């Protein structure tokens, strides 16, 4: 749950920037049809919901922000560092914490994040329950509403019209409306339904419930609702041919509902007509947009939309171009240069973020190179994490929760073994791999034996791999290290055989392994 919460925080941070840009664009397009600004809120919704997108040189997002998302493993690092995603801040305050306080800091960060994720989920659930209860109470009040025609109802206890429902939305009107008022209000509510505004409002509310902690998302929700109403009014006026008398009559129908109104708070399935004063002003000032205004507005909307959806494209050849174009290099001279090397933390992060997919739905002989690359990447990630004393994420390699939990714990204990000098194997980021042994079972299950060494010290890594939605995932693994945690808790290489894909779903096996892990950890601490 903590990693999910970090992902939501990261999306919310990016979306905050997007919200501010959309607010500025709304001011620029003040005289444009409100449907333009209404559509721009879809970009905000995309950024709040979708954690990935394409890259483009036309991106309007800050380059540093997209290059440095909130690291998923920042709370697990052995020597935690400040990593906000903002390089200036990180370089100023981002030194490693003192070694003597690192362990305590890791625990505190983990605890704070865990508590924060629980609060996030509880408040999200509370908001959804409150909204659902509000809708149910409202439906209870409407049980005596009278059906007038088709999906139109009248109720005596209403002060404002609204739409209620999702699949079969119904329009509810106050009793006693004049015929002219009633016709305009019905046009407005029917326009909402034709544009699927009742569904859009619900989706927006669900997104708001996920990002409830971000005040800018609340601002975006309110402004989106305002733009929804304004653009709906303009659509009605357009259908009525912008007649001056009609505009005044339409505004009067809004004014008649402004007194003693009842706002439908907390009910995303039943939204009433808010901001009457602003809507009346917008209706009276509304004119048919000129062609150039409309063309300019649409162009801005498309350009800004693409710019805010796309991530900035990072040019990896910038450093090379800068070096080769330097004035210090004389013509005809032989020049040697080296690009800045990636840090170990960057290499580990790149390995953790790699994803390996196959061509078909099941692993086949044509995927051997991909399977081998998958295995070597995992070995380098695991052994590199031990050597560098860094915590990493194996989520792109393992989906089974029990196996993932075991691998994380095994890494933690072998890192402590390494610090104590209790392992007779040399670990590192770059390993030498020998001939790989492949064996395929049942069409979608691959056995791989991967011998490797580092500075003359080696072992044999074995794994069972299968495809899940075309992505390669390990269902069992084993490091053939006689001093390693894997051997101690799961069996000697002569005894430990890789089993089928259901081994780590066997709770008896899992409980036995974790009992041995707990016992070994106690011995390691003593």
From TrEMBL:
InterPro entries xref list? Beta-lactam_resp_regulator, Peptidase_M56
CDD domains, per database record = M56_BlaR1_MecR1_like (cd07341)
Name the Pfam families on file: Peptidase_M56
Q: Where are the transmembrane segments?
A: 6-28, 35-54, 118-138, 202-221, 291-310
Start and end residues of each Peptidase M56 domain: 7-282
Q: Which UniProt keywords apply?
A: Membrane, Transmembrane, Transmembrane helix
Q: Which PANTHER family match?
A: POSSIBLE SENSOR-TRANSDUCER PROTEIN BLAR, SLR0241 PROTEIN
Q: What is this protein called?
A: Peptidase M56 domain-containing protein
Question: Source species, please?
Answer: Lederbergia citrisecunda
């Amino acid at each position: 749950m903590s990693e999910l919460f970090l992902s939501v925080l990261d999306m919310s941070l990016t979306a905050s920037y997007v919200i501010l840009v959309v607010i500025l664009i709304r001011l620029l397009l003040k005289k444009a049809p409100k449907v333009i600004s209404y559509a721009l809120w879809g970009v905000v919704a995309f950024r709040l919901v979708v954690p990935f997108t394409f890259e483009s040189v036309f991106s309007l997002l800050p380059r540093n922000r997209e290059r440095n998302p909130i690291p998923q493993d920042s709370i697990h690092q052995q020597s935690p560092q400040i990593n906000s995603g903002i390089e200036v801040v990180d370089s100023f305050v981002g030194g490693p914490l003192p070694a003597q306080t690192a362990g305590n800091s890791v625990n505190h960060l983990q605890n704070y994040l865990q508590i924060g994720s629980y609060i996030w989920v509880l408040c999200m659930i509370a908001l959804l329950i409150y909204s659902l209860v509000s809708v149910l109470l409202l439906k209870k009040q409407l049980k005596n509403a009278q059906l007038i025609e088709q999906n139109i109802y009248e109720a005596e206890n209403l002060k404002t019209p609204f739409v209620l429902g999702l699949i079969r939305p119904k329009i509810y009107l106050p009793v006693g409306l004049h015929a002219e008022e009633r016709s305009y209000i019905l046009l407005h509510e029917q326009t909402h339904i034709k544009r699927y505004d009742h569904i859009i409002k619900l989706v927006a509310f669900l997104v708001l419930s996920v990002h409830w902690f971000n005040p800018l998302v609340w601002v975006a929700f309110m402004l989106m609702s305002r733009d929804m109403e304004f653009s709906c009014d303009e659509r009605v006026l357009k259908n009525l041919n912008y007649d001056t008398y009609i505009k005044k009559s339409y505004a009067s129908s809004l004014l008649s509902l402004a007194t003693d109104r009842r706002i439908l708070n907390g009910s995303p399935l039943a939204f009433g007509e808010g901001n009457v004063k602003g809507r009346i002003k917008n209706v009276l000032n509304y004119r048919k947009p000129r062609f150039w205004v409309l063309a300019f507005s649409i162009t801005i909307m498309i350009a800004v939309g693409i710019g805010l959806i796309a991530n900035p494209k990072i040019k990896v050849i910038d450093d090379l171009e800068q070096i080769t174009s330097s004035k210090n290099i004389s013509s005809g001279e032989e020049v040697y240069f080296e690009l800045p090397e990636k840090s170990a933390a960057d290499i580990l992060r790149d390995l953790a973020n790699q994803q390996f997919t196959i061509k078909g739905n099941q692993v086949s002989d044509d995927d051997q190179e991909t399977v081998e690359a998958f295995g070597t990447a995992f070995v380098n990630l695991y052994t590199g994490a031990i050597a560098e004393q860094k915590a990493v994420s194996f989520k792109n390699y393992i989906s089974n929760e029990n196996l993932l939990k075991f691998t994380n714990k095994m890494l933690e204990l072998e890192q402590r073994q390494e610090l104590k000098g209790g392992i007779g194997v040399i670990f590192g980021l770059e390993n030498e791999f020998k001939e790989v042994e492949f064996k395929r079972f049942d069409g979608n299950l691959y056995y791989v034996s991967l011998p490797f060494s580092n500075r003359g010290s080696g072992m044999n890594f074995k794994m069972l791999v299968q495809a899940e939605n075309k992505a390669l995932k390990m269902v069992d693994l084993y490091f053939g290290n006689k001093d390693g945690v894997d051997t101690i808790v799961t069996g000697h290489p002569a005894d430990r055989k890789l089993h089928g894909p259901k081994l780590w779903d066997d709770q008896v096996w899992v409980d036995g392994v974790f009992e041995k892990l707990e016992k070994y950890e106690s011995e390691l601490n003593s």
